[in-house]
Amino acid sequence: MRRRPGLSARLKLTLSYAGFLLVAGALLMAVVWVFLLRYVPDNPQGLLGISPNRYLLVRTFAPAAALAMAFLLVFGLLGGWILAGRMLAPLTRITDAARRAGNGSLSHRVRMEGRRDEFRELSDAFDSMLDTLESHVAEQQRFAANASHELRTPLAISRTLLDVARKDPTRDRGELIERLHTVNTRAIDLTEALLLLSRGERGTFTREPVDLSLVAEEAAETLLPLAEQRGITLDVTGGTTRTAGSAELLLRMVTNLVQNAIVHNLPAGGTVTVHTEAHGDASVLRVENTGHPLPPELVPTLTEPFQRGSERVRTDEHAGVGLGLAIVHSVVRAHDGTLDLTPRPAGGLLVTIRLPGRAGCPAPPSPRP
Questions:
Q1: How high is the pLDDT of residue 261?
Q2: What is the pTM of this model?
Q3: Is there a contact between 340 and 351 (Cβ–Cβ < 8 Å)?
Q4: Residues 6+ apart with CB under 8 A from 8
C-alpha cells in the first residue's frame, strides 16, 4: 500500500533531541530569571547603591542568553542527527536484510554483534525467522521436485504402454488395459496423498471431539484382511482416549501407521499392536510392530516425503508412494501434537503420537459399521 511521504525516523529523532535541548535551555533561563534577576532592584542605584540594576543586567544577560539558545539549537540538531544515526544503524541493517529476503535471498543474516538490547533481540528473532523460512522453502522445493518426479513416472509408463500398443496392434489388449489400470491407480493414489498432505500442512479443518480408541479400532478393522493375508497378528488395546481434531485426518493417520506396521514386518508370524491411553493432559497413541532391525540413521528420514530406506522398499502391491509417514507427521503437526519414532532392539519400530487431550469433551459418535 502506497503512503504519502513523511519525515524520516532519523529526522524526527533529531528534531526531538533538539527540541528537548531547547526546552531544557529555556527552563534554565527561566530559573535564572526567577531566582536571580527578580531580586535585583529596578532602580538607578541598584542593590545597596553599588551593584548594577535590573535593567543593566537584563541588557547584558539577554544577548548572551540568545546566543546560548542558538548554540543549543545548532548543537541539538547536529548532535541529534549523529546520535539518531547511531541509534538507528542496527535498524538499517535489519531493513536491508528484510529487503534482501523480499527479493528472494534467504541466506543473508543480520548477525548483530554487541550486548543484548532491544535491537539485538529483534535481530536474533529476524535471523531465526529467516532460518525457519529458508528451511521451509528448501523443503517445499525438494518436495515439489520429488512430487514432479513421482508423478512423471506413471505418466511416462502409460505413454510407453500406449506407444507399444499403437506399434503392435496384435498385442493382448486385456493385458494392456490391466497394466494401464494399475499405473493409473498408482497415479491417483499419489495425487490423493499429495492433496491430503497439503491439507494437513495448511491445517484447514474443523476441530471436533474424536476418540482415538474408536479410530484405532476402525483402522484395524479395515486392515485386518491385509494382516491375515500376511500372517500378522493385529491387536488393539487401551481405553477411551479423547482429543480434538479432524476425524477424517486422524483416521488416515492411524490407517497409514497400521498399514506401514503390517507391510514392513516379518514375512510371517509378526505382530502389530495399537494402544491408546490418556496420559495427563495428553492423548497417546502407540503403534508397535515386529520386523527387521532398522539402522538408527534411517529412522529420522522416514517422515520425509518420498524418502524410503533400502530396508523398507517393497515391490508388491503395497509398495506405497513414499508419503505414508510424511502424511502422519503432517497430520500430527496440524493437531499440535508430537511424533516419536523409536527402533526396537529386536527389530521393528515403535511409533508414539501425543496429541492434546480433551478430558471434558463429550463422547464422539460411534463410527459407522
A1: 93
A2: 0.58
A3: yes
A4: none
